[in-house]
Amino acid sequence: MAPTITAFERSPDRGKGLARDMRVRWALEEVGVAYDVRLLPFEAMKRHAHLALHPFGQIPTYEEDDLVLFESGAIVLHLAQRHAGLLPKDADARARAISWMFAALNTMEPPIIERGMAYLFEREKPWYAERMPMLEQRVDVRLAQLSARLGDAGWLDGTFSAGDLMMVSVLLRLGSSRPLDAYPNLAAYVARGEARPAYGRAFADQLAVFTGTPAPGQA
Amino acid sequence: MAPTITAFERSPDRGKGLARDMRVRWALEEVGVAYDVRLLPFEAMKRHAHLALHPFGQIPTYEEDDLVLFESGAIVLHLAQRHAGLLPKDADARARAISWMFAALNTMEPPIIERGMAYLFEREKPWYAERMPMLEQRVDVRLAQLSARLGDAGWLDGTFSAGDLMMVSVLLRLGSSRPLDAYPNLAAYVARGEARPAYGRAFADQLAVFTGTPAPGQA
Fold first, then answer.
1. Which residue in chain A has the smallest CA separation from B127?
2. Which residues in chain A touch residue B92, judged by CB atoms under 8 angstroms apart?
3. Which residues of A touch B70 (CB under 8 A)?
4. What are the backbone angles phi and psi of residue B124, rounded to the nearest 5°?
5. SS3 A70
6. Residue B62: which domain range?
């Protein structure tokens, strides 16, 4: 049976591919696993039936036979460990690729999310103008370090891996805003990720949910 | 050769075990792997020699023969996958335990860190009193969900795993502050983690770095 993931019935980003189901869709496309999607309205997220799958009431979840997983990082890692295409064969190189997954989620994403949350929820507050430069600075420190490590390489550690998939996904949350402008190699890195056919198929599928138009190639 | 980890020469938490080397020390003790520690002064963290090991200039790193890893989550997972004691044998149960590692690091830790950062860096700011309840609320939502899922169980999914190690480590960052008081099952869960002999040995070793006194059992 094909695995089933959950996604927003109506994504708050209006189909820009920033919801976390996109990371899992992209991974599924990279490893060539067909999947089903169960769409959830917001009011269903905190109901018992969904909390039984995801203790924090979020998307995505992943169901495969009797296995239920939550957390996009864990789902992508599960797919990467069971199918070829997202982790190198060499054991040391695999471990390093997994380091980059954790770096994306635990070092890079938190300041990016924090900056986004401030913009969403505190833009009208009197302290916004004073706090925002501090939040931008926290993001910039990480971008500068990532840019220095990436250098002229195409991907973070040899061939494309789940570490790159997760890092590109996290950097995409910066949107078209300024932070990446100072780092042409990071902007090119993100564009390289977006140019992958698997990314394109995943993006079209999540956009089709928002527009209500089937993605190209779907009946 | 024993692996080598890096840790702060002088931890900013004064030996309370909140620095991220503690998670790796705890995992090493759980799986029974002896290790060496290289202590780093703050001024060495952003130098080229350390950035070559850790692109974000943090601790811990992990060196084992030719393998260099960074990110405590990745290091703990590496140890858990290569040694018995931190992941169940059943493949589905292993994947679920790894879900809890990612949940600890990507869902639970960010709001806890954010609350801590506000206390450290914005306590004197005029907006602190108005923002703090919002930050407390973000932490509390996650604690309530975690408490509901844990219920009367001893650990998050069957036997103790790397998922519990990481979740207890993250909850410990709340310190002795109020948030856990409302959730006696979570307070007991954290105490259960701290009571493990492996935790005790790791804690004593990191404290000994701060006090300059060898831990019990060390020469």
1. A127
2. 66-67
3. 99, 103
4. -95, 0
5. strand
6. 4-85+198-211
Determine the Cα–Cα distance for residues A83 and A73; give it in Å rounded to an integer. 15
**Contact assignment for A69 to B96 by CB distance below 8 Å:** yes
User: Looking at the DSSP assignment, which residues form a beta bridge with residue A61?
Assistant: A70
Matching residue, tokens 């407390």:
B136
Instruction: Give A77 to chain B, closest Cα distance, Å.
Output: 9
- Rg of the Cα atoms in chain A: 18
Helix, strand, coil proportions of chain B in percent (round to 5)?
60, 10, 35
Indicate yes or no: CB of B55 within 8 angstroms of CB of A106. no
**C-alpha distance from B119 to closest chain A C-alpha (Å):** 14
Give domain status of residue A219, yes or no: no
A residues 140-169 lying closer than 8 A (beta carbon) to B: 142, 145-146, 148-149
The DSSP-derived string for B183-215 is: -HHHHHHHHHHHTSHHHHHHHHHHHHHHHSPPP
Chain B nearest-CA residue for A146: B55
Paired tokens of A20? 């976390």
* Residues B192 and B102 reside in one and the same domain: yes
**Rounded to 5 degrees, what are φ and ψ at A37?**
-125, 130
**Nearest by CB to A103, which of B56, B101, B125?**
B56
pLDDT 10s per residue in chain A (219 long)? 899 999 999 888 888 999 999 999 999 999 999 999 999 998 999 899 999 999 999 999 999 999 999 999 999 999 999 999 999 999 999 999 999 999 999 999 999 999 999 998 999 999 999 999 999 999 999 999 999 999 999 999 999 999 999 999 999 999 876 788 899 999 999 999 999 999 999 999 999 998 888 766 554
By the CB < 8 Å criterion, does A51 face chain B?
yes
Q: Are A96 and A155 members of one domain?
A: yes
